[in-house]
Amino acid sequence: MLLTITNTTPEASDLGYLLHKHPDKVQTFNLSFGAAHVFYPEAGSTRFTAALLLDVDPIGLVRNRRGPKGEGFSLDQYVNDRPYVASSFMSVALARVFNSALGGRCRDKPGLVDRPLRLEVRLACVPARRGGEDLLRRLFEPLGYRIEAARHGLDDTRPDWGESPYFDLKLSGEVTLRDALSHLYVLLPVLDNDKHYWVGRDELEKLLSKGERWLKGHPEKQLITNRYLRYTSRLTREALSRLVDEESDPDAEAEAHDKEEETVEERISLHEQRHAAVIAALKASGARRVLDLGCAQGALLRRLMQEKQFEAIVGLDVSLRSLDAAEDRLRLDRLPAAQRERITLMHGSLMYRDRRIQGYDAAAVVEVIEHLDPPRLAALERVVFEFARPGAVVLTTPNVEYNVRFETLPAGRYRHRDHRFEWTREQFKAWAGQVCERFGYGVRFLTVGPEDPEVGGPTQMAVFEVRPDADRPGVREAP
Ligand code: SAH
């Protein structure tokens, strides 16, 4: 496996300083999976080329259990493409051999580090799985490279076998050396899509540190992150959320506030009673496929999973942190396949029409609407009742009249600092009534928690059901 990097910027020999490798020497580095040799096939003042030859030892791979996993003896442990293609092994070699350059350190000429150079990078055999040349372009062109890619056939003597996923790749561009190395470091495993070792937290840190200067702005950051972290969805979500340009952490604030709300309501464990009431209403509606919209950390989802009636259960939330917590709580990675298939977590917002939530029998929208400003509430109404249009919607929100009965809640304060409103029973009924009017639903109201003769119950619940005679969706303007 051969990688060459050529500098054609005047004073091309600067490349030697940046790489911290003497042009007259051949150097060899021993790695756990083979050896890496560095040398300079050309060292002129107008063209200066460094080569990294990676000699992967396939037997060593099996011994070190870094090769493809196989039960007992399997030939593909020994016969595979690992020794010949640019993969994560090349990334590991780059990081080891060109450590200083990748980290942006140059002992003799530190001023060179941030200087863009005219570079040509050649890789003898790049696997571009599931995407081919188009994928190469999508990954490298946004980073400022021109691409020449020549595809290898599977076997020159058997053209009928067709094409292989392997390319000879040449990238040319004006970039700093450290950026070029970090692009290769991250993107080679992404192209290969076949990482053979466990992806843990330190892989996430590597991705974020090596991609620090460019991943955030890359149009394919989702694909890059997914593949680099090998679809371990939790790490991927964390990586993507850390790539978002956001100084404060709204999720963390929301979490702190959630605790506050729980304390206020805890004396009657309202939370649990609410979920019990929602489940009862969902079951009574006859639903088999259900949505939990604004599922937070998955408390309701867990109870839904215990009910055999629900064959397909979807939790959707806008907060990544909450979805991570839900994934943990539900122990998704440990569920038997049949159970695992019943449940799906989706990252999404109820502000936007979303095809993924169409076609369900029922939806729970539990303690969500009061977190939305009025224009956003209007968006949610259309997204849920007009576009997703489940047969039934079970929706809860605090009854503000009851707040005087909470001893720990100062007068006039909402139960949760993020609540934009808390409604009286009248206000809730008026709102629900106009929703029914516009979208063709009928509604009945229930109370959750101990009912007080004067102020009603702490939580109010509405169960909407599509009216059989309703026209197909189409917003009817509120009168
Ligand atoms: N239904 C849960 C949590 C209610 S807290 C329960 O019964 O305990 C409100 C939840 O709605 C939070 O998890 C928040 O992230 C989510 N949320 C707020 N705005 C949202 C939006 N626009 N789209 C989807 N979820 C949203």
Outline the fold blueprint.
Blueprint: E1 2-7, H1 14-19, E2 27-31, E3 34-43, E4 48-56, H2 58-63, H3 88-97, H4 99-102, E5 117-127, H5 132-140, E6 146-153, E7 163-175, H6 177-192, H7 201-210, H8 221-228, H9 233-243, H10 250-265, H11 270-284, E8 289-293, H12 299-305, E9 312-317, H13 320-329, H14 337-340, E10 343-347, E11 362-366, H15 374-388, E12 392-398, H16 425-439, E13 441-448, E14 459-466
Parallel strand pairs: 8-9, 8-11, 9-10, 11-12
Antiparallel strand pairs: 1-4, 1-5, 2-3, 3-4, 5-7, 6-7, 12-14, 13-14
Helix pairs in contact: 3-6, 6-8, 7-9, 8-9, 9-13
Bound molecules: S-adenosyl-L-homocysteine (SAH).
What does it look like?
With 479 residues, this protein is α/β, with parallel strands linked by helices. It has 2 domains: 2-197, c-terminal autoproteolytic domain of nucleoporin nup98, CATH 3.30.1610.20; 256-466, Vaccinia Virus protein VP39 (Rossmann fold), CATH 3.40.50.150. The protein has 16 helices and 14 strands. It has helices at residues 14-19, 58-63, 88-97, 99-102, 132-140, 177-192, 201-210, 221-228, 233-243, 250-265, 270-284, 299-305, 320-329, 337-340, 374-388, 425-439, and strands spanning 2-7, 27-31, 34-43, 48-56, 117-127, 146-153, 163-175, 289-293, 312-317, 343-347, 362-366, 392-398, 441-448, 459-466. The strands form 2 sheets. It has a 7-stranded antiparallel sheet. The chain has a 7-stranded mixed sheet with strand order 10-9-8-11-12-14-13, with helices on both faces. The protein is elongated. The N and C termini lie far apart (71 Å). The model is unreliable at 66-72, 245-250 and 474-479 (pLDDT under 50). Residues 294-296, 299-300, 317-319, 322, 349-351, 366-368, 371 line the site of S-adenosyl-L-homocysteine (SAH).
